[in-house]
Amino acid sequence: MSLPPLSPEQLVKPRHFELRMSLIFGTLFISLGTHLPYFPLWLQAKGFHAEQIAVILAAPMFLRVVTTPLLTTLADRARDRANVYVALVAASLLLSAGYFLTPTYAMVLAVSLGLTIVWTPHSPIADSLALSGVRRFGSNYASMRKWGSICYLCANVAGGFILAATGPQAVPVIIVLALAAALVAGLLAPRMGRPRKASPLSAAEIQHAAPSLFNAYFLYFTFGVGIITASHAFLYGFVSIYWKSIGISDSVVGLLWAWGVVSEVCMFLLFNRIFASVSVVKVMVIAGIGSIVRWILFPLVWPLGLGIAGFFAVQSLHSVSVAMVLIGLQKMIAETVSEERTGAAQGIAYFFNGFFMAAVTLASGPLYDRLGVDGFLVMIPIAIVGLALIGLAARSAPKRPVRRGDERTLVDEARHTVAGK
């Protein structure tokens, strides 16, 4: 027995759906493209040492692993997930103004904790809206999501040049302006209504065809993704500080971050041509191996005299260690998770990503104090553990993607469009 039909409103594709979702992804990632590379530099400029920086970065991550799944699940139950998105962006804009207050350690930590509650769910809710379009209308996930990466890249480059001219004090200003733009885009978000819910008459079939998210394959896979992602914590927390310590300018730091995103965008554009017939487990194995290679090479670049060109080369592996993880996770969810559970699935994935990223980020402060750039070598065994969990997921993988009645065709399309077809 199939799911109940879509309502008349849900049968109609919102006007300019792909354009509006691209605008949401783009504005969403401008603030992230400023916060990730440059917020640690702002913290350092305010006099915080490495262990304090690690706590300010990690403590919000521990908090959001609890709050994000709750808020994404709430979004699934709301009349429209877009309304929840708008409310969270508005709250983020208000809280981000707290960085203009006197930047004591307690104040910055408190603002960061409050901000992470309402900021972190932006991306999984946007992903859920986009995947609803993939399932219902055959929209192309990668063609929408790539604008997030492109705007992230622009924020990296522009942020570097702005900081070179003004110093790190510009970071909070850029974040506030970016969140204001995200709020405007959110008001234009396509309204999709509630996700489709199962009819009581089809409950038995759905339980058979789409088991609980707490199944071995889903849990091993998202667990492994979370740990591979967490191996990037040292990079995200301290690579900008390291580059500055060896004399690389703010503008070049921005270009190095941007080059990683260029490689990510290239993977979004080329993924389906190269990996269309590759299973999602193999995609994730390749991503894990790419992460390991990246952490081996990073500490060697400067001692071997490879200079800035060497860092650009290593940053090219962002296309493998980050982009393939992101695409692979969304591909897995599209293949195996029913639409009414998409928000919850995104929340669980963010739970694992956030928890392990927080733990490794917290450890990265002392690692950087004691080992400097050699702290990257500690990321290698972390990525290996993630690979092992992906291997366990492969042993329990479903024989075929979830299909149900009248959604069979859309789910088949989603398997390809989410990967960039």
Mean pLDDT: 84
**Tally of DSSP helical segments:** 18
Please indicate the count of domains: 2
Give the structural class.
mainly alpha
Strands, count: 0
Please identify which CATH superfamily of the largest domain we are dealing with: MFS general substrate transporter like domains
CATH topology of the largest domain: Growth Hormone, Chain: A
Main sheet, how many strands, which sense, barrel? none
Based on the model shown, name its key terms.
2 domains; 75% helix; Growth Hormone, Chain: A; 421 residues; mainly alpha; globular; disordered C terminus
Write the layout of secondary structure elements.
Elements: H1 8-11, H2 17-45, H3 50-77, H4 81-96, H5 105-119, H6 122-137, H7 141-166, H8 171-187, H9 203-209, H10 216-230, H11 233-245, H12 250-275, H13 280-297, H14 307-315, H15 318-336, H16 342-371, H17 379-395, H18 408-417
Question: What would a concise description of this structure say?
Answer:
This protein is mostly helical and 421 residues long. The chain contains 18 helices and no strands.
Structure description:
- One of its GO terms (cellular component) is plasma membrane.
- It is a multi-pass membrane protein.
- Residues 21-370 form the Major facilitator superfamily associated domain.
- The chain crosses the membrane at residues 21-41, 53-75, 82-101, 107-126, 147-164, 170-189, 217-239, 251-271, 283-302, 308-329, 350-368, 374-394.
- GO terms for molecular function: lactose binding; lactose:proton symporter activity.
- By secondary structure, the protein is mostly helical.
- It has two domains: 13-200, Up-down Bundle (Growth Hormone, Chain: A), CATH 1.20.1250; 204-397, Growth Hormone, Chain: A.
- The chain is built from 18 helices and no strands.
- The longest helix has 30 residues, at 342-371.
- It is globular and about 55 Å long.
